[in-house]
Write a structure and sequence with these properties.
The structure holds two protein chains of two kinds. Helix content of chain A is 34%, strand content 16%. Chain A is of the alpha/beta class. Chain B is α+β, with helices and mostly antiparallel strands. In chain B, 20% of the residues lie in helices and 24% in strands. Chain B contains three helices and five strands; from the N terminus they run βαβααβββ. Chain B has a five-stranded mixed β-sheet, covered by helices on one side. The relative contact order of chain B is 0.26.
Chain lengths: 394, 94
């Protein structure tokens, strides 16, 4: 039955809302800004979410609840315990399950009338265009630079808006890229940071509510774009500082010299984004190459037989409080100023959480003349796996 | 002229853990020079080896990107805020 409406914006192919749906969406329908017309636009909309993690959780929940007719989710990860602190789509019983499976179940349970398509795959240059083509809006909730640039370029090439959100510790950034005439991600940041300069795991972490807020902002912008109301967050970068509880807005401009959306673009197809972000080389040559190592078992054996070994913990003080091997704590960043606390005539084993920072510490100390120094392979995580399971992993 | 410099979370560890600092400077470049003079560790995060501002770090004077003003020569006035806004990718990356 064709819908009875005079508005040209809603094609007649769109179904009407059932009695039950009218009840479900009643709080939308009674606002003139949304109304039946807006709700039918939502029902007709096709939104692709990249990532079902911290940002994807509120996004998926709100878009499904709002009645977005077709929701695509791309993710290849499985739920683990460390996700539960912020990824509120998942239950403890979901640990070990593919995220898209758990997410689909949850969202379908919340709103059975929408279509949810899941893609258990890593987003790559060879599948992105095909995946994006069917959707109207792409919402980027990933956690790494290669995927950010990939999503951006694919959106520009296919001329689709990219609702962007990113988070770090207590800070978030949100905007809508490639809104008609507006800037893209490359206009804002032409190049990614080299891997060595991105904050290490020591500085990582995120307060669980933060992706909730930023993901909800993305959901709001997505819904506004679909319904066509308000002022989209295009050409503006919204910065959120949770500690100061402040929102700030910076102006974004399209860069006429942008290689992908500029006046004379030089990028006409997707490229190798791992290479673009300088990550491939890093994988081929692990940071620990050439660094003398000791395994947790070897270290345990030597400590048990009473060898004089000095344990150097290069993590941060707050990590030491989580768990420690009773080592001497000098955070990696302080090492240059505090190396004099160490006795180069003793055997030293440096460790961190996973072995990456301590490899840097060993390399630094070797250059400073230390000869009897080893990196604890796999760090405190491996110690917990191989020697003492009572040490918690974080 | 007192100019406020906002330091993003990711770079605070190189700036004495401060969220913002104030300097007297007549241009954006001058303020940044003072900042990296005070906190030398910040230098490599803001500048390339040949002294250019890194392309994944944007500098704003109030709400405007200095690339669209007079870059580092952009004049500042009392009460201006300079923000350093690096690209951030997402949540926890290990």
């Amino acid at each position: 039955m064709p819908i009875i409406t005079g508005t040209p914006t809603v094609p007649e192919t769109v179904r009407t809302l059932s009695k039950q749906e009218i009840q479900r969406y009643s709080r939308h329908l009674i606002m003139p800004e949304v109304g039946m017309e807006g709700q039918l636009k939502l029902a007709k909309a096709k939104v692709l979410m990249i990532g079902a993690g911290g940002l994807g959780a509120p996004l998926g929940l709100y878009l499904a609840a709002a009645g977005v007719g077709r929701l695509g989710i791309v993710d290849f990860d499985v739920v683990d315990y460390t996700n539960l602190q912020r990824q509120i789509t998942f239950s403890t019983s979901d640990v070990g399950r593919p995220k898209i499976q758990a997410a689909k179940e949850r969202l379908a349970g919340m709103n059975p009338s929408i279509r949810i398509d899941t893609y258990e795959t890593r987003l790559t240059s060879s599948n992105a265009l095909d995946l994006f083509r069917d959707y109207d809006i792409i919402v980027d909730g990933t956690d790494n630079f290669p995927t950010r640039y990939l999503v951006n370029d694919a959106c520009v090439l296919l001329n689709k808006p990219n609702v962007y959100g990113s988070i770090f510790r207590f800070e978030g950034q949100t905007t809508v890229f490639h809104y008609p005439g507006g800037p893209c991600y490359r206009c804002l940041y032409p190049e990614p940071p080299p891997p060595g300069l991105v904050p290490s795991c020591a500085e990582g972490g995120v307060l669980g509510v933060l992706p909730g807020i930023v993901g909800a902002l993305q959901a709001m912008e997505t819904i506004k774009l679909i319904i066509g109301i308000g002022e989209p967050l295009a050409g503006r970068l919204l910065l959120f500082d949770a500690l100061g509880m402040r929102f700030r807005e910076l102006r974004l401009r399209r860069n006429p010299a942008c290689p992908v959306c500029g006046d004379h673009p030089t990028i006409h197809e997707l490229i190798d984004y791992e290479e673009f972000c300088g990550i491939r080389g890093e994988e081929v040559v692990p940071v620990t190459t050439g660094i003398p190592e000791i395994t947790p078992r070897e270290l345990k054996t030597r400590l048990d037989r009473g060898d004089d070994i000095f344990i150097l913990d290069v993590r941060e003080p707050h990590e030491y409080q989580i768990c420690n091997l009773q080592g001497h704590l000098i955070p990696l960043g302080d090492l240059p100023n505090r190396a004099s606390e160490l006795d180069s005539s003793r055997e030293i084993v440096a460790h961190c959480r996973s072995g990456k920072r301590s490899a840097d510490a060993v390399q630094f100390l070797q250059q400073a003349g230390f000869r009897k120094i080893w990196n604890l392979k796999g760090g405190i995580l491996a110690w917990s796996d191989e020697v003492d399971p009572s040490v918690p992993k974080y | 002229m007192a100019i406020k410099l906002e330091i993003p979370t990711a770079l605070r560890q190189f700036a004495g853990k401060q969220a913002s600092v104030e300097f007297n400077a007549a241009t954006v470049g001058e303020a940044l020079k003072q900042l990296t003079g005070t906190y030398a560790d910040l230098r490599k995060h803001l500048y390339t080896d040949d002294g250019r501002i890194r392309s994944f770090v944007n500098i704003y004077l109030n709400d405007e990107d200095i690339r669209y003003l007079q870059k580092e020569n952009t004049p500042t006035k009392d009460g201006d805020t300079i923000s350093i806004v690096p690209s951030i990718a997402g949540g926890v990356r290990i």
